[in-house]
Write a structure and sequence with these properties.
The protein contains ten helices and 27 strands. The protein is α+β, with helices and mostly antiparallel strands. The chain has two domains: 299 residues, Acetamidase/Formamidase-like domains (Jelly Rolls); 89 residues, Acetamidase/Formamidase-like domains (Endonuclease I-creI, Roll). A hairpin with a 2-residue loop joins β9 and β10. The chain starts with a helix and ends with a helix. GO terms for molecular function: hydrolase activity, acting on carbon-nitrogen (but not peptide) bonds, in linear amides. Keywords: Signal. This is Formamidase.
Length: 481
């Protein structure tokens, strides 16, 4: 974990020197690439001009241009900041800008691939990587991650939402009282160690008070996707007001939300209904990581940010943290790297639906590996690969490439078709193939090595494309050298 002073410096650098204000045209990106930066330090601040809400799309103009060898600092804003406005939004200008939603204006009106919450994550980017082409591999070294402190309080808070997509809604509740419960955590430092501690909890809606849920101005009905490349106009419409398969009507200029149907709602609850009894029950060592980091897929439409992709995206693997390296296959020119959904803590499975969703600032180094000269361990790479100081992590999903494998309506069908059994098959096949390629093994040799040396784990069971990963210890191969 980085020292306290290093984390402070990281946060200050981003606040002072970040790029924001507008996106670059494709022509401007190409012009910048003509004079490569060759190892420069760049930073990208997060606000409504440098982020998208809930989707990947290859037709978005880049927020920044970077070259292989550059180090970049990127701000990532949590899509759950609305769970406590005073602690996670108020006083932070970039976050206030992203969440601004009044009767007159929704600063970021297109939320989700079709504008009605089909994707929830606030993703900073995309970052155009010079010379990146389909078939290349982008290496992303995660140099540092730091909790984003609210400038007005000097504190960082996060939210764990035990939401309707959590596995507890599949497994069942003891009293059959299905409920969405939000726990607000504070990030604290003690003796140069970082922890998350529960502050209080509350129900999103329902409960003994019969609270119907938070009320907002009516969400924008339609519009054009912001910041698309010149000459392209992508219209979106949410005229039916169907959000997460639920109709939420507009009455007298307001909508009342009985559940997490639409991202960015500012939650409220009746005064005095907070459950303070959780305070002091436990203290969890922080494990800062990025839940959603990926490249744009080669797909003609905007892609929901929730189901993970062969190009990365919403992996929710807690090992994507400082000191790790991520390798992603490039599918489109410029790679178009975006990131968000950062967590200060999460266990494997992300069982209740989220981690401790927290705004975080990160520092990264980019290295582009060209298709004609790929290192052996990323040759033929078709899935995300994570490298930690001690392990290789192969990431599998129910569908390795759901967009191309599900024949009809893949972005909706993936949520009904997810299976841990299928994810295990994909993770095994990818692990076997990767070990055969990387270590010159036969299939039988890979099978026995996997069985006696590797661990498989459930990455997540909440993202519409369930994840299973394999942990391959480096030392078993170093010992054989």
């Amino acid at each position: 974990m980085a020292s306290r002073s290093a984390l402070l410096i990281l946060g200050l650098c981003l606040l002072a020197n970040g790029i924001s204000g507008r996106r670059l045209s494709q022509m401007e990106a190409m012009d910048q690439c003509a004079a490569p930066s060759n190892g420069a330090m760049k930073s990208l601040k997060a606000d409504s001009t440098t982020a998208v809400w809930g989707y990947f799309y290859q037709g978005i103009e880049p927020a920044m241009v970077a070259s292989s060898g550059d180090e970049i600092m990127v701000e990532m804003i949590t899509h759950h900041a609305g769970d406590d406005y005073e602690k996670m939004i108020a006083g932070d200008p970039g976050v206030e800008d992203i969440y601004r939603w009044t009767p007159e204006e929704q600063t970021m009106a297109m939320r989700g691939a079709k504008g009605a919450g089909e994707g929830v994550h606030i993703l900073t980017g995309p970052i155009y990587v010079c010379d990146a082409e389909p078939g290349d591999v982008l290496q992303i070294d995660i140099l540092d991650l730091a909790p984003r402190k609210n400038p007005s309080t000097g504190k960082t808070y996060g939210s764990n939402a035990a939401a309707g997509w959590g596995y507890q809604f599949r497994a069942g509740f003891l009293d059959d009282d299905k409920r969405e419960v939000i726990t607000i955590y504070e990030v604290v430092e003690e003796d140069d160690e970082m922890y998350v501690v529960p502050d209080y909890a509350f129900r999103f809606a329902g409960g003994p008070t019969g609270y119907p849920g938070p009320t907002t101005p009516c969400a924008t009905l339609n519009g054009s996707m912001p910041r698309t490349v010149a000459g392209e106009n992508v219209e979106w419409s949410a005229e039916e007001r169907i959000y997460s398969s639920t109709n939420v009507p507009c009455d007298d200029g307001n909508q009342t939300w009985a559940g997490y149907y639409y991202p960015g709602v500012i939650t409220q609850h009746p005064t005095g209904t907070e459950d303070m009894s959780i305070k002091g029950k436990f203290k969890v060592p922080a494990n800062l990581h990025i839940g959603n980091i990926g490249l744009s897929p080669a797909w003609d439409e905007a892609v929901n940010s929730i189901p993970p992709l062969p190009t990365g995206g919403n992996m929710d693997n807690k090992r994507v943290g400082a000191g790790s390296t991520l390798y992603l296959p490039v599918q489109v020119a410029g790679a178009l790297l975006s990131m968000g959904d950062a967590h200060t803590a999460q266990g494997d499975s992300e069982l209740d639906g989220t981690g401790v969703e927290t705004s975080i600032n990160g520092k990264f180094k980019l290295t582009l590996h060209k298709a004609g000269a790929l290192p052996k361990f990323v040759a033929n790479l078709t899935h995300p690969l994570i490298e930690t100081p001690t392990e290789w992590v192969v990431q599998g999903y129910t569908y390795a490439d759901f967009l191309n494998e599900i024949p009809e309506d893949p972005q909706n069908q993936i949520f009904a078709l997810s299976s841990i059994d299928k994810a295990m098959v994909v993770a095994y096949n990818e692990t076997r193939d990767w070990m055969m390629q990387s270590f010159d093994m036969t299939e039988d040799q890979a099978i026995t090595a996997i069985t006696i040396a590797c661990d498989f784990g459930i990455t997540q069971v909440v993202d519409g494309n369930f994840g299973v990963h394999a942990l391959i210890p480096k030392k078993v191969f170093k010992m054989a050298e």
